[in-house]
């Protein structure tokens, strides 16, 4: 079975700001104008996060721009969107997020076989010195690769 994946947006800062412990793919409950806007690539996951409330998981603060050809029934860009997960998954991720320093953040938003999906990650915030160490490691790897190519 071939998987047709069309990336809408990704949260590029997430891997810099957080250390991702685990990832999971979830479906989204969307309105028609939201789907049309996503197909145009008009979404932003910059400040988005996920929260479990009343046995349901919600994507909060994700900005999906109003559809350009929509009418007065256009959607609210920052409305909470329900994630489609199994009850066991919601409970496990809720327990993970309740630990000190952990949160659930969206990593990518994409269409898979025509259905809107979001990849979420259980993340722990990095300290400043962790970010600096990652940058230093990346720079040294680049230098090493550059010297290896010369020889």
Number of domains: 1
Write the element-wise H/E pattern from the N-terminal end onward. EHEHEEEEEHEEH
Query: Structural class, from secondary structure content?
Result: alpha+beta
- In the CATH hierarchy, the architecture is Beta Barrel
Radius of gyration: 18 Å
> For the residues shown, what is the average pLDDT?
86
Shape: globular
Topology, please?
Layout (H helix, E strand, L loop, with lengths): L4 E6 L3 H4 E11 L3 H8 L3 E2 L4 E5 L2 E5 L2 E2 L16 E4 L2 H12 L3 E11 L2 E11 L2 H23 L1
Antiparallel strand pairs: 1-8, 2-7, 2-9, 3-6, 4-5, 5-7, 8-9
Write a brief structural summary.
This protein is of the alpha+beta class. The chain has a single domain, classed as Small Protein B, Chain: A (Beta Barrel). The chain is 31% helix and 38% strand.
What does this 3D model show about the protein?
This protein is α+β, with helices and mostly antiparallel strands and 151 residues long. It has a single domain, classed as Small protein B (Small Protein B, Chain: A), CATH 2.40.280. 31% of the residues lie in helices and 38% in strands. The strands form 2 sheets. A 7-stranded antiparallel beta sheet has the order 1-8-9-2-7-5-4. Strand 8 and strand 9 form a beta hairpin.
Task: Provide tags for this entry.
151 residues; alpha+beta; Small Protein B, Chain: A; seven-stranded antiparallel β-sheet; two-stranded antiparallel sheet; globular
């Amino acid at each position: 079975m071939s998987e047709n994946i069309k990336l809408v947006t990704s949260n590029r800062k997430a891997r810099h700001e957080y250390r991702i412990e685990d990832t999971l793919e979830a479906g989204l409950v969307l309105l028609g104008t939201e789907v049309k806007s996503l197909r145009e690539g008009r979404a932003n996951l910059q400040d988005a996060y996920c929260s479990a409330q009343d046995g349901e998981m919600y994507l909060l603060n994700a900005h999906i721009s109003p559809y350009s050809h929509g009418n007065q029934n256009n959607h609210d860009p920052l409305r909470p969107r329900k994630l489609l997960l199994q009850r066991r998954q919601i409970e496990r991720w809720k327990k993970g997020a309740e630990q000190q320093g952990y949160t659930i953040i969206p990593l990518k938003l994409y269409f898979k076989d025509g259905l809107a999906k979001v990849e979420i990650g259980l993340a722990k915030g990095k300290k400043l010195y962790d970010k600096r160490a990652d940058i230093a490691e990346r720079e040294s790897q680049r230098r090493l690769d550059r010297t290896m190519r010369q020889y």
